[in-house]
Amino acid sequence: AQTVTQSQPEMSVQEAETVTLSCTYDTSESDYYLFWYKQPPSRQMILVIRQEAYKQQNATENRFSVNFQKAAKSFSLKISDSQLGDAAMYFCAYKGGSEKLVFGKGMKLTVNP
Amino acid sequence: NAGVMQNPRHLVRRRGQEARLRCSPMKGHSHVYWYRQLPEEGLKFMVYLQKENIIDESGMPKERFSAEFPKEGPSILRIQQVVRGDSAAYFCASSQEEGNGYTFGSGTRLTVV
User: Fold this and answer.
1) Facing A99 at nearest CB: one of B44, B98, B109
2) Cβ-based burial of A73 (10 A; exposed 0-12, middle 13-18, buried ≥19)
3) Count of pairs with CB atoms under 8 A, one residue in A, one in B
4) How many angstroms away from the CA of A95 is the closest CA of chain B?
5) For the range A6-10, what are the long-range contacts, defined as Cβ-Cβ under 8 Å and sequence gap of 24 or more?
6) How far does B43 lie from chain A, in Å, by closest CA?
7) Nearest-CA distance from B16 to chain A in Å?
8) Among A45, A46, A106, beta carbon nearest to B91
9) Which residues of B23-47 are buried (b: 16+ CB within 10 A; e: fewer)?
10) Chain B residues 14-43 with CB within 8 Å of chain A
């Protein structure tokens, strides 16, 4: 079974600084997708960024970018120029051949003004 | 486009009562997924449905839980004879087709007293 591990339960960053959130996963599949979701206090699950495993190029979405290391099964999220609105729980997720998303336990990000 | 609508937002039930959680997918989406989030945990897959069909219920407890997605109307997650351990946030997501992006609702927080 696939697993997703987020080893840091909490992190903090100063406003305008850069922070990197780590995620590792375990799978025997070769074709899959990886996601980062943001969950603010409103509880809404918001897709931040998505990476297809067959693509070597790291995905980027404005201030958000990933470092996808397929051989190491690592998928970290970098947030540049952190903003107060980035404060939230962040979840790493995996989707392989089935339609299920497998989530990590999440990481709470605090942004200090 | 109203997005994925879940109601109620909060639901309180006494032990032994039934809980009914509703999910209206995004317009044009025919795939619905239910996830459960326990406190301090990531989301865990429960069931995947298409119109009038359960495709994958491997994450759903065998007893007391059922789900449906009728031809007309919202998807319903039904929990009979609720117990305190059922207290959680229940999220619904929808997609247009398999392998495509998921859109999540804001969840229903169920509290069993």
Assistant:
1) B98
2) middle
3) 55
4) 9
5) A6/A90, A6/A91, A6/A92, A6/A104, A6/A105, A6/A106, A6/A107, A8/A107, A9/A105, A9/A106, A9/A107, A9/A108, A10/A107, A10/A108, A10/A109, A10/A110
6) 6
7) 27
8) A45
9) bbbbeebebbbbbbbeeeebbbbbb
10) 31, 33, 35, 40-43
**How confident is the prediction along chain A (113 residues), in pLDDT tens digits per residue?**
889 999 999 999 999 999 999 999 999 998 999 999 999 988 889 999 999 999 889 999 999 999 999 999 999 999 999 999 999 999 999 998 888 899 999 999 999 99
How far is residue B109 CA from its own chain's centroid? 11
